[in-house]
């Protein structure tokens, strides 16, 4: 039996043509999904500075409420 590659023929082409989410240049395997360390660092800075936010419920519970329930 011949071994089969699980990737579709177009999948390898798609990976080669994907662009950097920061600047739009072709991505480089070393810094994937970015094109350079600079773009990777820009993305990291955006996460750390709060420019990117993952949506979710806010925690409106007061800290003292959680202490009271822990004692019961």
From TrEMBL:
This is DNA gyrase inhibitor YacG. Keywords: Metal-binding, Zinc. Inhibits all the catalytic activities of DNA gyrase by preventing its interaction with DNA. Acts by binding directly to the C-terminal domain of GyrB, which probably disrupts DNA binding by the gyrase. GO terms for biological process: regulation of DNA-templated transcription. Residues 1-22, 52-72 are annotated as: Disordered. Zn(2+) binds at residues 20, 23, 35, 39. Transmembrane segments: none annotated. It holds the Pfam family YacG. Belongs to the DNA gyrase inhibitor YacG family. Binds 1 zinc ion. One of its GO terms (molecular function) is zinc ion binding. PANTHER family: DNA GYRASE INHIBITOR YACG. Its cofactor is Zn(2+). Residues 1-18 have a biased composition (Polar residues). Coiled coil: none annotated. InterPro entries: DNA_gyrase_inhibitor_YacG, Znf_NHR/GATA. Interacts with GyrB.
């Amino acid at each position: 039996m011949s071994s089969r590659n699980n990737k579709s023929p177009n999948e390898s082409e798609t990976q080669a043509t994907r662009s950097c989410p920061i600047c739009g240049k072709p991505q480089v395997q070393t810094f994937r999904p970015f094109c350079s360390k600079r773009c990777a660092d820009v993305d990291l800075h955006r996460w750390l500075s709060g420019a990117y936010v993952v949506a979710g419920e806010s925690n409106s519970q007061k800290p003292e409420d959680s202490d009271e329930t822990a004692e019961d």
